[in-house]
Specification:
heterodimer; A: mainly beta; B: mainly beta; 0% helix
Chain lengths: 113, 112
Amino acid sequence: EADIYQTPRYLVIGTGKKITLECSQTMGHDKMYWYQQDPGMELHLIHYSYGVNSTEKGDLSSESTVSRIRTEHFPLTLESARPSHTSQYLCASSDPGSYNEQFFGPGTRLTVL
Amino acid sequence: GEDVEQSLFLSVREGDSSVINCTYTDSSSTYLYWYKQEPGAGLQLLTYIFSNMDMKQDQRLTVLLNKKDKHLSLRIADTQTGDSAIYFCAERSPGSARQLTFGSGTQLTVLP
């Protein structure tokens, strides 16, 4: 069973609010990822990190930002949420020494009113 | 560039076999994966296959890989209602910073 956690699981907020989605893993993985999942199911990589102090933007442009100050923690922040940010956000981590299985958290479903 | 495609929906009767298909474009893919996503949850790795293999079987799951046609399939034998979920195909490309490219997912519905 994967030890990767996301909080909150569900969040409903108003436009303009600043929010932080939390992601933590206890597996000691260096690589971590954030995906945005469309209502139509497709996954889009928005951020990834290869280790502490390493962050890169993914394929899908996102107004969110991430930080990686500790190996186990990879939070995602939206400075000013908008309705277009309504989506499911999935965090994942992987071990480069394995067959690169990505372990996923349960996701945060964000609704911006 | 890399691209992974799947059909969006599949319905089967309980007890029948399900076959979910996937095509990919990157011939240098080293591993190919099948993930399962149940409602309200994250993705869970079901199985994977290394690119030098043609077939892999794991209990009710059979993965077939046709490298020439860049075609991957997942067969679920004796499909149960608990198998209803979204199934994602993914590939790993050695030169990609993203490392995994996911398909759009196939929604499998198992009818009683």
